[in-house]
Amino acid sequence: MFHTMKQLFAPTNKDLRLRILFTLGALMIFVIGTGVQVPGTADVTVNLGFLELINVMGGGALKQFSIFALGVMPYITASIIVQLLEMDIVPYFSELKDEGPVGRQKLNQITRYMGIIFAFIEGFAFSYAFLGSGKTTIDYIYVATILTAGTAFLLWLGDQVTQKGIGNGISLIIMAGIIATLPNMFITAFKELILTSNLDLWLGILLFVLFVVIYFAIIVGVIFVELAERKIPIQYANKSTSVYANQSFMPIKVNTAGVIPVIFASSLLAIPATIAQFIKKDAFTNFVNNYLTYTKPVGFIIFVLLIFFFAYFYTFIQLKPEDLAKNLKENGGFIPGIRPGKDTENYISKVLSKLTIIGGIFLVIIAGLPIVFSNLSGLSSTVTIGGTSLLIVVGVALETYKQLEGSLVSRNYKKGYKRR
Known about the structure:
Blueprint (H helix, E strand, L loop, with lengths): L1 H7 L5 H20 L18 H6 L15 H14 L4 H7 L3 H31 L5 H28 L4 H27 L5 H27 L1 E8 L11 E6 L6 H20 L2 H10 L5 H22 L2 H10 L2 E2 L7 H36 L10 H32 L1
Antiparallel strand pairs: 1-2, 1-3
Helix pairs in contact: 2-7, 2-8, 4-6, 5-6, 6-7, 7-8, 8-9, 8-15, 9-15, 10-11, 10-12, 12-14, 13-14
């Protein structure tokens, strides 16, 4: 890492530094925009509840009901749906996926249009939920249009970062929103543990230091798991025996599904809460609060089961053992000690199943830490450890660093090639 930073500040990499500055400037625009409230909604009080995840990803924009209240979540929702439709569910989307760059461009357009439609629908729903029933339909449409425009601007800003900056713009916007809430979280923890606590001063200081140490220890653990992978040895029939020692590998990540299972599980559990907020029936609301909220025992068990289900579902959609075994056989490759064909498919399936169990346990621990911590610590809900947001930040940071490192390596390779 230090070598990478040294290379970055080399005189020949000035353009790369300008790309980083452009990225930081674009993210600063996003952070400033999260504080700009939707015109005419100064008296709106937002009760987040199950929407806390969207608020955190948006840098607190939803709580302030700013122009960026929806963030890029409508686009993320649309992207996930399109990815699922590509997996032989809808033939048209599957055909576009196989058409190469042209098909990919068409899918990106469909995803963006779908994201804008979702943004307007969510904006209208949020305006009705937060402004109350005393407004006219025109008022709701007005607010929904502003929120949709905010999402559209963020998608454009994300594209600019991707083209002129470093990393994936949309992912970096989500990461910036999460990071923007961290200073307030640590300040709140400091106040509640030291300044306003009934505990002894030194005990409060010790607990705050312990909180910070545990927080960063969890970050290290998340990085370790995110980088962990199982390397399945691959040998090719056209290679000589002498090359066998330098055999290829098929790397499979421990957490192949990433953060998708947690987002799916949270979204599914949020549906009853959303319905309860609109129909306003006490009996149904009480049932949802007691049994379908992941802060309650029954809801938490359902939450855990949903995470495992989606972890398996998404992993086996992304990495199909049948396709992997088929591609190996067509390219003259095989796993040493495993016969090509069905045996290879079964072997890969077993490896994927074992890794998914480990990845699922990891996701449950990360997603469950904030819930357990809030119940045991007695601190404000804004003070948490672990959580989906931390997983997102680590994942995006690692991918951005890899892209930066890859760019520097490529430049050095080209310079060495020119000298020859």
